[in-house]
Amino acid sequence: MKxxxxxxxxxxxxxxxxxxxxxxxxxxxxxxxxxxxxLLRQLRTVQVEQTRFTAIEALARxxxxxxxxxxxxxxxxxxxxxxxxxxxxxxxxxxVMIRREGGxxxxxxxxxxxxxxxxxxxxxxxxxxxxxxxxxxxFDHMDxxxxxxxxxxITFDSKGQPxxxxxxxxxxxxxxxxRRAHEFNLGCLTRVGGCRTSRQLLPAVWRGVRRIQTVxxxxxxxxxxxxxxxxxxxxxxxxxxxxxxxAAVN
Length: 250
Description:
It contains seven helices and nine strands; from the N terminus they run H-H-E-E-H-E-E-E-E-E-H-H-H-E-E-H. With 250 residues, it is of the alpha+beta class.
């Protein structure tokens, strides 16, 4: 009887491992995307120059190891660590950096002075090894004289693919512009094969583009010249980003 009982137990354990491992991996792979999506929903009510920073610090504590506040900065990070470890996708990271305006001793711990969001795709865990494949960044800062409330720029790689999308906006940006700028494609965190262009990372910003024009940033030197684009992402006229600004982004 003992050999039979042992054999049955081993079979049941093997069955549990065979069934349980994929289920566990599924939850490990999906967790970063789920947490990032939950954070984006919570950040809809956060307003630069208005939201108290103590609310951001409390929010960071709720995300455990995925968030940390040091001094006047709170950082939230979510990565496709398991997919990358299994070599099923390039390393992809979504992060949010929120900075304090004012002092910690001010009422409410000061206010939110800026909120920067970024999604980066790189071949290795550390983006300084091999460079980024694609990136999308949104800088939501306080009003600055002479700058439009909403500006966007695209740069292309040597193959003509959109490699980087950069959005700069202030609290004066319209509700629609703010919404589009925050609609990151978090599916890139769980996608087998990953996302390869900035258009995939932040597709909402590209919707409704009425005009796109290639701008050469430097004279051609034997090979293809680096390129950037300037465009209007709104049905109504907006100040177009200049080639100098696009060059600065690079």
